[in-house]
User: Fold Succinate--CoA ligase [ADP-forming] subunit beta from Salipiger pallidus.
Amino acid sequence: MNIHEYQAKALLREYGCPVSDGRVVLNASEAKTAAGELDGPLWVVKAQIHAGGRGKGSFKEAGAGEKGGVRLAKSVEEAAEQAKLMLGNTLVTHQTGPAGKQVNRIYIEDGSDISRELYLALLVDRGSSRISIVCSTEGGMDIEEVAESTPEKILNITIDPATGYLPYHGRRVAFSLGLEGGQVKQMVKLLGQLYSAFVEKDMEMLEINPLIVMEDGNLKVLDAKVGFDGNALYKHADIMSLRDETEEDSKELEASKYDLNYIALDGEIGCMVNGAGLAMATMDIIKLYGAEPANFLDVGGGATKEKVTEAFKIITSDKNVKGILVNIFGGIMRCDVIAEGVIAAVKEVGLQVPLVVRLEGTNVDLGKKIINESGLDVIAADNLSDGAEKIVKAVKG
Assistant:
């Protein structure tokens, strides 16, 4: 689960991290009052969406004013006007895709005198199963771009969970970033605060880009991007309360209510599979036969008829779906349960696109019998390759 920048900064402030004073604006009428509560003389007006690259983004609507979702203002009135121009309009960045995201929240904060921009992040390193500190002197840029063009400017340090964060981690980061004097002590303290927040709140990612050195030599968190481990949210009611459902895909949101592992993609063939590995293989073989998957959907090993029905309804709600491939290998999951769920869903929502079903494993004969006797226009497949070939042919003609 992701949260907005202003929410991330409020959380980091609780841990003592240096962040700018700011106000969130949900309604254009509140913009002037919010800006007036800050001292100035420079105000920064930021669109709040769950995507990076806001400063380099552009709005679809002509009435949104100058390009970019991060703007500077030199008066309360100008800050309020910029907030009004952005609210309700669609911001397109390299991370949103061409559809963009509607801006429903604006964050107005005090400006900062910037001397240097740095990059700092804490991540879960899957390779080492440890928390990793990633830092670079090239702050304010996309870290992917830095990694590709100048990888030597990125330092990666893993933290042993047996010891946790130690001051030498902070000193090593500080020296690699060219910090000196009191800045080294500030970095040691800041990284300790960030590590505590990361561990205690079960974060998956904490990215500060940029972390700035101000003209007075002090460090400040100028931007913050935070993501949490969805499997740990049951422990954090305070974090759950920060969830902005308007920023999430409606189909993914609906799937989460039924404990379905669903991720929307851009293709035309909807997939319903049991098991993450088989789901990945299904998507790969669809691409092999010349089409694109419309989703990743793992119904899990213990899915019920109702769960399968909801999964099918979510797939068919995607207007991009031109065909559906059901690929079930029944181990824990029974093929007859899948068959009953598919039939129930088709009867409820109708079947407007080709449907290929491949069943194998527990109760496979009963599952096939249920499908065959349902009267549905279903294309049967003998194996995964056969199923992928048939659904691609049915969709492509």
